[in-house]
Amino acid sequence: MSEPVIVLDSGAVDQVVTNKEFRAVLDDLVRTGWTPVIPTPVLAEAITGRATDAPANQAIGRIGTTVTDERLARSAGALRHAAARTAGRHPPSGIDAIVAAHAAEAGAGVVFTTDPGDLKRLLAGSPLVRVERP
What is the mean pLDDT of each run of 10 residues along the chain (134 residues)? Predict the structure, then answer.
């Protein structure tokens, strides 16, 4: 990997729309070589299909989406299972696992999320990936 990634979950997509300071942080990271990633399954949580989605759709259009292929989905499943096994709790959501798998595959970067608990568990084996609130 030549540059670190910025992976956004649905809560972070909402923050791109509503939080000017967070947009500035993202812009700075992109300018310095970081690659933004919105996995396509995140759209299932970020989009409602109503006209009120327009600001989110515009933000997603500017950032772009990244396809989650079968190999990455399988990796997400393994991360999800491991997180549930180590914590002795219910597994994190499949979409959170997909977000984590994209970050883990890159090897380095940051996941922005409004709910960091599960993502930290999912990425426990990826020390070069930080989990942060927007």
Answer: 87 97 96 96 97 97 96 97 82 96 96 95 96 97
